[in-house]
Amino acid sequence: MNSQNSTSKRFFIKTLGCKVNQYESQAMREILERSGFKECLAEDIADLYIVNTCTVTADADKESRRIISAMHRSNPAAKIAVTGCYVEKNSEEISSLPGVAHIIKNSDKNRIAEILNDASKRQSVKVSKDILKITGFKDHTKAFVKIQDGCENFCSYCKVPLVRSSLQSKPIRDTVDEVRALVDKGFKEIILTGICLGAWGKDLPSNAIAKEMGIKGTDLTDVLNELNKMDGDFRIRLSSIEPAYVTHELIDCIARSRKICRHLHVPLQSGDDEILRKMNRPYTVEEYATKIEMVRRAFEGIAITTDILVGFPGETDRNFKNTVDFVKRLLPSRTHIFTFSKREGTAAFNMPQEIGPDIVKTRHYQLKVACLGSSYLYRNLFSGRSVNVLVESRRDKNSGLLTGYSDNYIKVLFDGPDDLKGNIVPVRIEETSLLYTYGVYEG
Predict the structure, then answer these.
(1) Does residue 28 fall inside a structural domain?
(2) Together in a domain, 28 and 176
(3) Is residue 185 domain-resident?
(4) Residues 190 and 313 in one domain
(5) 259 in a domain, yes or no?
(6) What CATH number does residue 324 fall under?
(7) Exposure string (b/e) for 201-233, b if CB count within 10 Å is 16 or more?
(8) Would you say 243 and 283 are in contact if contact means Cβ atoms under 8 Å apart?
(9) Which bin fits 148, alpha (ψ -120 to 50), beta or left (φ > 0)?
(10) How big is the CA angle at 217 (ends 213 and 221), to the nearest 5 degrees?
(11) Predicted pLDDT of residue 42
């Protein structure tokens, strides 16, 4: 790796992966701009590239390497700083790539200005020891707010616990202040996110000790209750939350709130008990179904979205059929389907009976068909009904229509003027197809 310090001031950030990474890129952007760096709108004129990587799959690793190589080829004089989860276990591999001048661990993202500044100027740079925070969110209608880091679930296929910190919860006061700043900037939707969002508070002292120490809140519902007290025309959406954290307390909190979206993303991963055990997922199919039924009894029309992994080692035709059958029973409104990827260091890395790529491809397609049908059936329930849609800042590139998401996570396309962008507006759903939902603005 080139050890020469960068004197460059024009930077360009490329972000891969999850909402947490997108949040952290925004935080680094603000830190750099406060320290005198200037972000480039055009990638090819940057003096410095920052690649915020993902490592959840082998394809994510490959894409990170491709981007780094392409940046160096297009602008050999620029220096490249690489950060994110890929560097946590593969820093030597990344350091050897042409153009890479800096490796920045996730825990050092708040020090990015110090790391990138010239050595002679380091003493004049005030380094924040605080957790990351943001005051805006570039090119986004919605703002992601990271309130939690770390995961201790150790699913057998997942590398994330190996590359992220131990459990860390952002204090409620900091979260409230951050959300207030974003709402004051005009953001109408705040998405709370974390590596394992539901684990917020597990690293904090017990309630009794917390009270003595003056710590307010030790559970995700405590965060939500504080945000519910805030004034302002905005809504709160939860990102992914594991089944174990879908509790009666959480459901009651959402039910009492006028701000929290009627939408829960609850990862399933498989609809077969045998595969769930091999994945080290701590529930059965029926236990998962019971959780979802409990949620649906509390909220008419709530959206349930999920993740499903295809091609786990040893997944038989029967195992896969059980998953498809469960999707048809569950009827999620949206499903993220991804395929198994061997990740070194995980329990599944050396598991036998690896599934061939042709079989995985076929299963992915078959599951996608079932999930599209499920989505259609859910969205069609709202035909003729009005939903509140947060209008995106960009129109749909194919139709030219305005587009946005409802409270219950239905993406709606409709005609209307540009001044609706960034606002929550009433839209009546008129037509539902397998892929799209169309509506009429009721303003």
Answers:
(1) yes
(2) no
(3) yes
(4) yes
(5) yes
(6) 3.80.30.20
(7) bbebeeeeebeeeebebbbbbbbbebbbeeeee
(8) yes
(9) beta
(10) 175
(11) 80
Tokens 């350091």, residue?
Answer: 95
**Where residue 434 sits, what CATH number does that domain have?**
2.40.50
Q: Find tokens 């082998």 and name the residue.
A: 58
Mean pLDDT (whole number) for 49-57: 97
Residue 120: give its domain's CATH number: 3.40.50.12160
What is the spatial distance between Cα 281 and Cα 268, in angstroms, rounded to a whole number? Answer: 9
pTM: 0.92
Q: Are 302 and 408 in contact (CB under 8 A)?
A: yes
Residue 205: which pLDDT band, with cuts at 50, 70 and 90? confident
Q: Is residue 129 part of a domain?
A: no
User: pLDDT band at residue 2, thresholds of 50, 70 and 90?
Assistant: very low
Kindly tell me the sign of the dihedral angle through the C-alpha atoms of 383, 258, 372, 23.
positive
Whether residues 220 and 367 share a domain: the answer is yes
- Judgement on whether residues 226 and 321 belong to the same structural domain of the protein: yes
- Note whether 98 and 161 are same-domain residues: no
Whether residues 437 and 373 share a domain: the answer is no
Report helix angle 86-95 to 58-74, nearest 10: 40
Q: Is the pLDDT of residue 327 over 90?
A: yes
Instruction: Specify whether 258 is located in the same domain as 350.
Output: yes
Q: What is the CA radius of gyration of the chain?
A: 23
The two beta strands, 334-339 and 303-310, are parallel
83-131 confidence digits (pLDDT tens): 999 999 999 999 999 999 999 999 999 999 999 985 434 333 444 445 7
* Cα 102 → chain centroid: 25
Domain housing 422: 386-441
pLDDT single digits (tens) 265-324? 999 999 999 999 999 999 999 999 999 999 999 999 999 999 999 999 999 999 999 999
231 in the same domain as 279: yes
Cα-Cα end-to-end distance for the chain: 57
- Contacts with 293 (C-beta within 8 Å, 6 or more apart), sequence order: none
For the chain, the domain total comes to 3
- Residue 132 burial (CB count, 10 A): 20
φ, ψ at 196 (rounded to 5°): -140, 80
Q: How many CB atoms lie within 10 A of CB 307?
A: 15
Helix axis angle, 357-380 to 317-330, nearest 10°: 10
Domain-ending residue, one of 124, 154, 175: 124
Beta bridge partners of 374: none
